[in-house]
Amino acid sequence: MTVQIHESWLKPLSQEFEQPYFKELVQFVRTEYAQHTCYPKKKDIFAAFDHSPLDKTKVVIIGQDPYHGPDQANGLCFSVKDGISHPPSLRNIFKEIETDIGKPYPESGNLERWADQGVLLLNATLTVRAREAGSHQKKGWETFTDAVIKKLSDEKEDLIFLLWGGFAKKKAKLIDKKKHHILNSGHPSPLSANRGYWFGNNHFSQCNEILQNKGLKPINW
């Protein structure tokens, strides 16, 4: 695995790429992809960064793991490729958008359209072995993506972080709350959503309101 990442991220993250943990991670990922079916495709591992350059990023959504089913993962958290049926969490995201801002439920679950507007859709772990959820956790990805969140917090201002569920909420400690906006809620997974922790959070309208108040273009969710 060679690190092919948008040039806007290269310099800010260059120190991470030189760390021993990252070199070990690269070797681990290279071996996994050689010996097993893994997702997303190699070219999509850093897709979140490619679609949302550092200077264009204004919203950050944090997921945990890529989808581990065939043809689902495309390198963006919660997103699936065009033509792939929507996983339960994504369905609940679209339902909340429908209720919150009145946008009809979309046909495609491909969230590249969000990412291209400056929404960084960042999974904490960027790769996974097929049909084995969490199989690439604790191999170094979390160290890297924590560094990304910290770098965003340090170098940018007025970012909006959408932290959904207990795992994402723990990332708040990496974010300077005086400079940025944090919106918390339960996770969109059925387990959390059906208990009343997701629906009605109005994160999509709140996010756009913050952007508009800062004179920035709202996201076309």
From TrEMBL:
The active site is at residue 65. It comes from the Bacteria. One of its GO terms (molecular function) is uracil DNA N-glycosylase activity. It catalyses: Hydrolyzes single-stranded DNA or mismatched double-stranded DNA and polynucleotides, releasing free uracil. Its EC number is 3.2.2.27. The keyword Hydrolase applies. The keyword Phosphoprotein does not apply. CDD domains: UDG-F1-like (cd10027). It is found in: Cytoplasm. Keywords: Cytoplasm, DNA damage, DNA repair, Glycosidase, Hydrolase. Residues 50-211 form the Uracil-DNA glycosylase-like domain. Its main location: cytoplasm. Belongs to the uracil-DNA glycosylase (UDG) superfamily. UNG family. NCBIfam families: PRK05254.1-1, PRK05254.1-2, PRK05254.1-4, PRK05254.1-5, ung. This is Uracil-DNA glycosylase. It comes from Zobellia barbeyronii.
